[in-house]
Amino acid sequence: MDTPAIPTLRFTVLGPVTAVSEDTELDVGSPQQRAVLAMLLLADGHPVDVDTVVDRIWGSTPPRSAAGVLRTYVYRLRRVLAPVAEATGLRIGSDGGAYRLVRGRSDLDLAAVEAARRRAHDLDRAGDPSGAVEHLAAAEDRWNGNALGGLHGPWADAERSRLGELHDEVALERAALEFRLGRAADALPGLRRVAAARPLDERVAVLLLESLLDTGLRTEALATYDRFRRQLADQLGVSPGAALQRTHQQLLRDDVPGHPTGREAPPASGTEPPVRTSAPPAGAATPAQLPPDLPEFVGRGDELARVEEAVATGATGVVIGFTGLGGMGKTALAVHAAHRVRAAFPGGQFAVDLRAAGGHPLTAAEALLSLLQSAGVPRAAIPDGLDDRCAAWRSVVADRRVLLVLDDAASAAQVRPLVPTGPGSLTLVTSVRRFVDLAGIRWSTLLPLAPHESFELMGRLVGHDRLAAEPGPTARLASACSHQPLAVRVAAARLADRPSWSVAQIEQQLYDDLDQPVVMHADCRIVDAPFRRASASLLEEQRDAFHRLAHLPDRPFTTEEAAWALRRDVGSTRALLEDLVDAHLLVDEGGQRYGFFALVRAFARRQPVRARAA
């Protein structure tokens, strides 16, 4: 007997928002209901809380029963998708005031684009640029007009702009490969489209001019250069960068050696040819925005060495990220590392607080406005759209060796438009979680300080002599702080505020605080704050597991022990444990064993555990 065919389900967001099953388009409702579906699809399996969805749909004027209307939308979507949900593994779940869509085996056009792009990069690195072009061409074909067609409002506009930028990047990567293969004529249609969308992007201009020259369209190339030069002068008050000026000189000579057809291949999208000029152009501002360094900074030798090595190599557009549980010193490390290498960046040192922790992060467009103004571009000359601001920022720093610190980032979409691609530029990013969709970033996860580093940090804050008189209590106090920099600093502040107290007394007070069912002291609330934020970001089942596991004995535990405590099977328990490791609330102890930082365990034990259903 034939095996029944598994139903197919395809979602699209790179055009009108649709759901198609077996070539039949499903009715996913009104524009607002489609917007809910789009939000859940673009969240890629992560929860989206109710307040966020309401704000994105209705902005500052939500209906009185907005949450109820949203529940109705979700109910209708579940009902429409129900006939194929079980077969495809699709599920729309609700946990802790948030909704989450698990796609299962259903297809999403955006996911297909990202997969094709990754495959193209792999093929190009493996020496098969022709195969890479085929995958990029397939990715380009996934767009069917403007993304999120039919949806309106600031959120839809911002996402449409982001997805439009992705479309441009795919086209540029394909065009660069076509040019490299000696097929400049095939590169031109996509380049002309992107150039019209990004009239101030020098990367696009260079590749377009080279392709025009390669196909014998020298007159059009000269006119294109002149138009671009005027736009830079009129809108930004700057001259073309060194890379574009060199291309112009090549146009005038009609002689660019090195390319298979007699001309040198331009760089792939996202890169610039190597240039030696790194100072800002005449009249441009040279920011020095780094926050003050911490004079008592200690530790993090490996991470600092990694930053200094990246600066020494002079690679283009290097991005280094620091992640870890709040309080581990991500911001302090980024600032300290930036101060150590700042002399290597005469083009300026920029810093932006992206404000993820507050729940209302800056948009990429807002951050670009701040960066452009810091770079000396008058507000009246700064365009309004994200793409245009991104192009303007890249043009301003195209030939400047700049250092950029992006603190407390919320997402790859927020960071990606801000990264300078100039020669030798460096971006340092801090975030509570890694962004797996930010290509090229090198992540370091910050763990607690070594015991001797905790002792050194505390000594610099309260005096080494005082600690040396009580080495045992000092070591235990640092250990009770889990060697977390924030907690060590708070303990040191408490010591400094009680000059007549012994270290042993402060140690005992900390133990008393940890045993309390409710945090009493303000400084303990400071230490708890990052744990509370991390816990709040969990799904309900993850948060429940986090609280229950904290009541296991104070030692590393196995997956099987966790499964017994949670009354779950081993497979689903392992997935839960890995989710908690990703949230930095559990530590992978090796050998498939997990554990808690002492402070995190104490926090979790203070939280109420939900009663289980009978």
- Largest sheet entry: 5 strands, parallel
Helix content: 40-55%
CATH topology of the largest domain: Rossmann fold
Computed CA radius of gyration, to the nearest angstrom: 27 Å
Q: Segments where pLDDT lies below 50 for 5+ residues?
A: 255-283
CATH class of the largest domain: Alpha Beta
CATH superfamily of the largest domain: P-loop containing nucleotide triphosphate hydrolases
Approximate shape: globular
Number of strands: 15
Distance between the termini: 43 Å
Estimate nothing, just give the exact number of structural domains: 5
What structural class results from the helix and strand content? alpha/beta
Number of helices: 25
Going by CATH, the architecture of the largest domain would be 3-Layer(aba) Sandwich
- Record the strand order, biggest sheet: 9-10-11-8-12
Mean pLDDT: 82
Share of β-strand residues: 5-15%
Protein name: Winged helix-turn-helix domain-containing protein
Report what the structure shows.
- This is Winged helix-turn-helix domain-containing protein.
- The protein is α/β, with parallel strands linked by helices.
- The chain has five domains: 9-108, Orthogonal Bundle (Arc Repressor Mutant, subunit A), CATH 1.10.10.10; 153-253, Serine Threonine Protein Phosphatase 5, Tetratricopeptide repeat (Alpha Horseshoe); 301-445, Rossmann fold, CATH 3.40.50; 451-515; 527-606, Orthogonal Bundle (Arc Repressor Mutant, subunit A).
- Helices cover 51% and strands 10% of the residues.
- It has helices at residues 31-42, 50-58, 66-88, 109-125, 129-140, 154-180, 184-197, 202-214, 218-235, 242-253, 301-313, 330-341, 364-374, 386-396, 412-415, 451-462, 464-468, 471-480, 485-497, 503-515, 522-536, 540-549, 559-566, 570-582, 598-606; strands at residues 9-12, 18-21, 24-25, 48-49, 91-95, 98-102, 107-108, 318-323, 349-353, 403-407, 426-431, 442-445, 557-558, 587-590, 593-595.
- It has a five-stranded parallel beta sheet with strand order 9-10-11-8-12, sandwiched between helices. The protein has a four-stranded mixed beta sheet with strand order 3-2-1-7. A three-stranded antiparallel beta sheet has the order 4-6-5.
- A hairpin with a 2-residue loop joins strand 14 (587-590) and strand 15 (593-595).
- Helix 9 packs antiparallel against helix 10.
- The model is unreliable at 255-283 (pLDDT under 50).
